[in-house]
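Figure 2 data, in text form.
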Amino acid sequence: MRTVEVERDERTEQVVGNGSRLAYMFLTFGVLAVAAYRAGVLGQNTFDLLGLVMISGAILLGYQYAHRAMEGKALRVALWTGGLGALLGMALALYLSRA
């Protein structure tokens, strides 16, 4: 009988997915920390960095939706959270620009 070596199984896929998720979260919060430093300490605009965070989140959401990993209530919660965060961010930016 011939044995076939399996290169990738469900556990491998889960470990790779978890590693990618942790790296994405670290990178996202790192960019947000850099944006906060640039805005608070250096007084610079940070729309470029915040735009990268928003676009990367939209790409992730679109990919998960296209592959049917994000549907129903989870999709609605993600869209509401993103929309509410964007609105609050714009309102805060408008308030701080006038102060």
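Caption note: Residues 10-98 form one domain.
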